[in-house]
Amino acid sequence: MEDNPKNPFSPEPKNYPHLGILSFETAKTMSRLISLYKSLSDNEISRLRTDVTKFEGITYLNSKEEGFLLSLACAERLEDLDKAAIAVSRLGHKCSDFGSNRFDPFFTNLKLGIIDLEKLEYKSKETAKTVDKMEKLIAATSGLYMALEALTELEITERKLKDWKDNSFMQLQNSSFDFFNQKLEHQRKQVCHFREISLWNKTFDKSVGLMARIVCIIYARICLVFSPYVPNKYTPFSEQLLPHPSPIQKTSKPNLLLMFYSRKSDVLFQENKDLGCAKVNAKGNMVFHAAGPSTVGGSGLALRYANVILLAEKYLDSTASIGEYVRESVYQMLPENLKSLINAKLSKNMKSAEDDALLAKGWRDAMMEIMKWLAPMAHNTVKWQLERNIEKMKFDSKPSVLLLQTLHFSDKEKTEAAIAEVLVGLSCICRFENHQ
């Protein structure tokens, strides 16, 4: 039974199972899909080509090869979509509708090229309506989540007040009790309202139906905009199915990033000499684990180095002097090889006290230039981790940061040299401030 297209919150058949508590995980999956959908807009694809892949930090630390960077972007988007599709398929098993119940083999056939992608229009009015419905349901479910959290806190307070009921002082505060009870009753009504209009009250069939359509549209869009980088063995998708040419043209030789698809699993082989060679289990993050030992991420240092850079940025922008404890804390965050590099640079650049002012000014200017491209990479590294924290309940549908925008694929030697320059500069500035 279809909803009235003008009202995405219209009643559904009561004999069909509703999402209930699964509405929050469903909203997370919907948010992930909308984020993917928005990341494939004309503006976002143009920004990827003209800004992201040309950003100084990315070209210096990660790669100058636009083809390799675009293949990474394509692979990560495909992987994110596969994870969302798995969640949709799992919910589909609870559906009454035969088609929704068998979404998994349908999506497999789509990727094998058995289903015509040309009918899945990214910019159609029908697609826009579907996205609008999903965004409203996400917002309502987010409202329900916050309302339930507030209600839980109020109910805890209610139990405490009942325990204090015999206290003579509390008995004099009847007006306060009345006000609290009104607030509690209002909050319960809020929860009931959001349950009615959110995914909580939607059937599995309706929810999966919306998401399944968007999954297929996103896949078709990826094949269109990244057509030179969708590996042939991932799908036998043919160019004659494309109604328009790809906005991303092949800029380098293929085989930088190869993905092989089978009905049971996806296996990624990395054949870039700078990143090493990796064969990754489909259950893991394939693109994430493709970083070789010569990269920051492959060495397991991406988040640690990002935090060091952000601390340096904080104190560089601050007028407050950096204390000995802070400097020691930052120093202890570094691996031994980077400590040795910094000590060697400090010894080489030591000057007399009368030169400190000029030296400090020169270091500050040099650090500012480095931080223009290094700090955004660190911010993106932390943001990427936060966006993919599966323990947090998030309903953000903005386009997410790509792994290629982080320190993960950065050359370890170049990154450590840049961090050393920044920390030596900070040390020089601190020495000048102490003399002052």
Notable characteristics:
single chain, 436 residues, mainly alpha, 2 domains, 3-stranded antiparallel sheet, 15 helices, 3% strand, flat, DUF3475, DUF668, Avr9/Cf-9 rapidly elicited protein 137
Structure description:
- With 436 residues, the protein is an all-alpha fold.
- The protein has two domains: 1-228, no CATH class; 302-435, no CATH class.
- It contains 15 helices and three strands.
- The protein has a three-stranded antiparallel beta sheet with strand order 1-2-3, with helices on one face.
- Helix 4 packs antiparallel against helix 10 and helix 14 (356-387) crosses helix 15.
- The protein is flat, with a radius of gyration of 27 Å.
- The protein starts with 22 loop residues before the first helix and ends with a helix.
Order of helices and strands: HHHHHHHHHHEEEHHHHH
Radius of gyration (CA) equals 27 Å
Terminal-residue CA separation: 77 Å
Profile the largest sheet.
Answer: 3 strands, antiparallel
Task: Provide the helix percentage.
Answer: 55-70%
Give the low-pLDDT segments.
1-10, 236-244, 252-283
Annotation field: number of helices: 15
**How many domains is the backbone divided into?**
2
Largest sheet: spatial strand order: 1-2-3
Give the tally of β-strands.
3
Strand content: under 5%
From the structure provided, what is the oligomeric state, counting identical versus distinct chains?
single chain
Keywords: Coiled coil
Protein name: Avr9/Cf-9 rapidly elicited protein 137
Domain DUF3475: 21-76
Domain DUF668: 295-383
